[in-house]
Write a structure and sequence with these properties.
Number of helices: 17
Largest sheet: 7 strands, mixed
Shape: flat
Low-confidence stretches: none
Length: 487
């Protein structure tokens, strides 16, 4: 049953003669996936779910049309005081909310199918605005790579990063590939990459025919170590590709100094760091080129998608040509260079525009979740909290910790298994690139290896409630106490 039924019922109850737009507002207020339609005396008339609204819009029903005009199944209701086992029997894969009615058909409680039985590491924050813009695409017929939402998304993201240009592409790996090609990286070249990153960073280098050179991490921010970069440069080095890992910026100034001194390009992989800042500057817009991912677990999402940002007009023009089959910008169907079909659809961009229009809200919610974790986990023996240097703003894409087996009382993997048993999803850190079969260099990079063996990411969705975070914190604290007793 709902924890505060009266308050929640009042939040999601609207007059039966309301329009679909009012239903969407109630859905957003309640965040339980349903709105209650009641008569003037507060008696239950019907129920509408987010799925009902979505199907109505796809069928052509306008937002200002009466809710009663939307086709939907008869609601399933229960009676006040019904035994819990009987209420449970009413749920199925379609039904998530069951109003419980008194003898006068007033809603006195709600039975909710608990979607938080298992806490995921990440999930997107999608709502009425995203639905409205996607519906606009479908109704207008502009669903492919042409459309106003693509241009608008690029404009919003360029402004977000403080750059002159933003080029939308199909995913973050495509963004990396085009950025490298635009910087003339090719066969025989070397690109320095952090070994502690997702494999796409190295794979994109390999796509060009160049070699990815994995370099160790520095221990404080877990990012590419500038001192190790200097030692890895050879006459074949063409670019440095730092990753702003898990939302914390790399030391860009130190890397820029090295790049400038050796005549190298600097390409920022900011796939995990939308909104992070380095000395007050948005990441992605500091080097020659910056790239972002909009995969479903990212801070800003379009399901799949990516963006490249730059201040350089020549690079922007070249990447726009390369992403669209190499077609000339002034002669249609004329292809002077080998290009790729790396375009983002208007449907995806519509979601991206909605996300960017509420990006401040998303980032604030991220900070709220991370602050709750930081306060709750502080002082637990054997747990190292994620970094945030004075010169940086960490956006905590995933709230990631290090576990010292000796002090905590169990290994990182044992903690992951224990959390999983309690319905809490965690993720180990990425295996280092230099330990992957494709890129094994046959030598140790010790800092990254230590971090990869000790690091795990906790549930980090912006939709996590205070109670959800407390559940994770309490579970980790309990396991730490058990570990201490077992020592």
């Amino acid at each position: 049953m709902a924890e505060n039924p009266r308050e929640l019922i009042d939040r999601i109850s609207i007059p039966a003669d309301s329009v679909l737009r009012d239903v969407l507002d109630a859905l957003d207020r309640g965040a339980v996936g349903a709105a209650l339609l009641v008569d003037g005396d507060g008696r239950f008339v019907s129920l509408m779910t987010d799925g009902d609204v979505r199907r109505a819009l796809l069928a052509g029903v306008e937002l200002d049309a009466p809710a009663s005009s939307a086709e939907r199944p008869e609601p399933v209701v229960g009676r006040a005081g019904m035994p819990a086992e009987e209420v449970s029997a009413l749920f199925d894969g379609r039904i998530r909310v069951i109003p419980l009615l008194d003898e006068e058909r007033r809603v006195v409680d709600l039975a909710l199918l608990d979607r938080r039985t298992r806490l995921p590491v990440a999930e997107p924050l999608l709502g009425e605005l995203e639905l409205r813009y996607v519906t606009e695409c479908i109704v207008s017929g502009w669903i492919s790579s042409a459309g106003t939402f693509v241009t608008r998304f690029e404009e919003l993201f360029a402004d977000f990063c403080g750059t002159r240009h933003a080029i939308a592409v199909g995913n973050g790996t495509e963004a990396l590939h085009l950025a490298l090609l635009a910087m003339d990286v090719g066969p025989g070249d070397e690109v320095i990459v952090p070994t502690l990153t997702f494999i796409a960073t190295a794979n994109a280098v390999t796509y060009t025919g160049a070699s990815a050179i994995p370099v160790d991490s520095e221990p404080v921010t877990w990012n590419l170590d500038p001192a190790q970069v200097e030692a890895a440069i050879t006459p074949r080095t063409k670019a440095i590709l730092p990753v702003h890992l898990y939302g914390h910026p790399a030391d860009v100034d130190a890397l820029l100094e090295i790049a400038d001194r050796h005549g190298l390009a600097l390409i920022e992989d900011a796939a995990e760091a939308h909104g992070a800042t380095y000395k007050g500057r948005p990441v992605g817009g500091i080097g020659d080129v910056g790239v972002f991912s909009f995969y479903g677990n990212k801070i800003v999402t379009t399901g799949e998608g990516g963006m490249i940002v730059t201040d350089r007009d020549d690079l922007a023009e070249r990447m726009r040509i390369l992403r669209a089959h190499g077609m000339s910008s002034d002669r249609r169907y004329w292809h002077p260079v080998l290009g790729y079909n790396y375009r983002l659809t208007n449907l995806q961009a519509a979601v991206g525009v909605a996300q960017m229009e509420r990006v401040d809200e998303i980032l604030r919610a991220k900070r709220t979740v991370s602050d709750r974790y930081t306060q709750g986990l502080a002082g637990i023996p054997g747990v190292t909290l994620p970094p945030e240097e004075p010169w940086a703003t960490n956006v905590f894409w995933l709230y990631s910790i290090l576990v010292d087996e000796r002090e905590f009382g169990m290994s990182r993997d044992a903690l992951l298994a224990a959390l999983d048993a309690d319905g809490i999803e965690g993720r180990p850190f990425f295996p280092p690139i230099h330990r992957q079969p494709l890129y094994d260099v046959g030598r140790s990079l010790p800092v990254a290896e230590r971090l990869a063996g000790a690091g795990l990411s906790l549930p980090s969705a912006v939709s996590l409630s205070e109670a959800d975070v407390a559940r994770v914190v309490d579970t980790i604290a309990r396991l730490a106490r058990q570990g201490a007793l077992a020592r």
